[in-house]
Specification:
The chain is about 70% helix and about 0% strand. The protein is mainly alpha-helical and about 350 residues long. It has two domains: about 180 residues, no CATH class; about 160 residues, no CATH class. It has a two-stranded parallel sheet with strand order 1-2.
Amino acid sequence: MTEERSTKIIANWIFIGVAMLIVQVLLGGITRLTGSGLSITEWKPIVGTLPPLNETQWQQSFQQYQQIAQYKYLNHHFTLSDFKFIFFWEWFHRLWARMISIVFLIPFIYFIVKKYFKQWMIMPLIILFLLGGMQGAIGWIMVKSGLNDENLYVNHIRLAIHFVSAMVLICYALIFGLKLIIPQKDFIKDAGLKKYTAAILVVVIIQLFYGAFMAGIKGAVAAPTWPDINGMMVPTPFFSGDLSKDLFFNIINIHFIHRSLAYIIFVLILIWWLKAKKQNSVSFNKAKHWPVVFVFVQIVLGIFALLNSPNIVLGHFGTFEWLAQLHQLTGMLLLLSLISVFYLLRSNK
């Protein structure tokens, strides 16, 4: 097999992994929106692959769930059938993670045996595997924050770390895949645009944290109005004297920061797009329009999700939940589109 052919196979394998990781994050969103995240109270990487197989095992799992605050104070009306529904989404979320591991590991071994890899590829692939394992550990640390007699949900800061670390993993895999397929002639030399793209990425990453905060604290229903926030354009008072509380725990402040960052990012990307239109290469031309498309769609979906949040019905996946999922998906695609153009840009040095 030619070197070009083997490299293309590896690239396709990586991009399949990227797609599976995106699906995994979306499954995490469904798990959160259905209130399923605390339904499995144990972390068993191997034996946990199988769900309960008989009535006795189902009752044991249900009894474990009944020991935590979420059941005692929120879902105490649940029957075994209700429990099975939320159990499925958390189980499937974990099962998909295991499937990703298999899709990564088996071809990895095969490609080593067949000597498809160049020497420089080995370390990035090992790092990918380690990042995936770390992501699973972070997920369990997040789940443990809700397995007690006090918290109804997982800690929203741990949720945000879990989400952003997943995006780090996806972005790392994407960059590795791009290294395999982008020819040297397609890189753009523009140090200024590269620095500007880096600045936008920093703001977008902060926004991802605040989007996860909104999800974790069930923030949409706290201010389901737009463009104002329950009649205010700026929360009053914004500062209470406790900076950590103001920035990370005050629901209305989190609303304001999340919305403000969305407008800022839209303006920054619009300016970026006007600058990027002057640059030209085959790969860059395919990528440079997507950030402005995604940021616009992202904002529109966010607004409609917010306005539909009063219609949330527990246990029902309705309009709000679909909008929230699409909002999350476009946020991910926005980040990946920016990562792609950032990779294509080079400094003049």
